[in-house]
What we know:
Ribosomal Protein S5, domain 2, 18 helices, 23% strand
Amino acid sequence: MSRIRILPEILSNKIAAGEVVERPASVVKELIENSLDAGSTRIVVEVEKGGRSLIRISDNGSGMSRDDALLSIERYATSKLYSDSDLFAIDTLGFRGEALPSIASVSKLTLVTREETAESGTEIVLEGGKLLKVLETGSPCGTQVTVKHLFFNTPARQKFLKTIPTEMGHISDVISNMALGWPKIHFKLIHNGSVLQNWSAAADPAGRITDILGKDFSTGLFPIKSENDGVSLSGWMSLPRITRASSQGIFVFVNGRVVRNRMVQHALIQAYGGRLMKGQFPLAVLFIKVPCDEVDVNVHPSKQEIRFSRQQHIYDAIVAAVSAGLVHEEKPSWTPAKVHGPTTLSENLVRAENKYPYTVPASGNGAPAMGSGLKPAPASTPTPLPDPPAPFRPPRPTNQPQLWEKPQTVHLNPIGQFFNSYIICESGENLILLDQHAAHERILYEKLADNSMERRIPVQRLLIPETLDLGYRQALILEKLIPDLCRYGIEIDLFGKDSFVIKSVPMVLSGREIKPLVIEMVDHIMETGLTANMEKSLDACLKLMACHGAIRANQSLTLEEMATVIKDLEACRIPAHCPHGRPTWIQWPKQEIERLFKRT
Length: 600
Ligand code: ADP
Ligand code: MG
């Protein structure tokens, strides 16, 4: 007897569900995609117990006839794809014909649907993929899919479900993403009977951005718009001063589909040139429209990854549009302002060229006398040098001795500052460079940690409390952090839905902007997960506080201030490293310097 068998359909659907339906949020995503493909303008998502017990999506789209409704629950049944060639020119969100049968195979699913022209609707009831009932029913025009007891028949999957707030966080992310990409559609999210989100159709996508990502997100955004050889770009980007420590504030839509794409992300960052600090990301909501046959969406079961056929063209278009937008925003205010707002790419490019009228100095023209082997700054076109002397090789700092690891300390005498960023010190026979930011970070980190244990962080009440609007998921995290942040001197109150008010800050942060710090903490925890290890999350918060409060690079210090930094650093438990592990200082022994000068 043959050992190979064709799998029964219910089993193969369950296997497909393994790919398509990872958690309640994936059900919500697939069903909303179906509603959008059906031309709905209003989509209501009802959820109970984080989607474990109920997910119901109701739309006012095209609806289905009885025959189509019965077909829709069959595997590989789709109205969106008829031929080979269609697969490479997909203009709908769905196309695999897998979602409904997959979801039905791992839940108790009820589908109620009616086409506008039909007198009555159809109700189909399935359990674990088995068809139980088909009825004629009265129903409004459109479709309602109810998914109860997800994974009731796949306990292994059920075990992987996280807490209700975590699952709700994922669901809310899905809906926020969809709503950002489809601003003209009314979205409503209800959890356990209470309305969590209600975003009515927005005429202007910018309004939707504010609705979803909060007012704080939208201030400091500039629009971009370009149309070039079939590729159209539009959206909003943040000014370089508004950044995040992760790419979570970057939302990219390709033909209406939310995607993660490294190339696009890289192009966005590239466009900022040197304006972003290392490790910082801009905020962005970017809509890319390309001809359907130039994007392959059939790369990943959940359709979040895509491939462009003209990668380079799209990359260049993004870099050009965003950098032109940046240049436009950075225009000095005294130039007669033309239209502010979306401009055409060519207009922007003309401005971009006018903005930096660099003339490259001709060889020898105004350049400092050569011979030192050092390049003139700013670097111009390479000037031919007379016989180059031996290349200047800076002395390699010696490996850091254990000297400054506790308990011994050395006495450092500040001499001055290098680049307003490093404190130059002498200490016995050594020349020492201290990274002022890293050193101060270490000092603040230890102080904050010690004082928070004893609950005596000196605080400053803000004269005008600062309000902070966050997205749903961020708000959940911040709410949880409130008591601990209070211990750290950051007093925050919940102030209406997803809004907070910051009332006091620790003294070490006085005069510093507090909102970016709080947002960075929340984003960090969003990336690493809060429940996994609370202590670790809080330690990360302390590190961020120390980083935000510390003396910056490029800050000039008096000798007294330098001496204070040195004294405080000497008092630290781990003075040789900043809280992130970077060295706070490097040294060159006199002997090494003398050897380089060929004195010995
Ligand atoms: P796909 O979306 O990949 O085609 P699905 O299994 O998600 O596959 O859906 C199968 C078919 O059912 C769709 O092609 C569509 O014709 C129909 N359908 C599903 N949901 C809806 C809806 N909300 N409104 C109208 N038709 C729908
Ligand atoms: Mg679908």
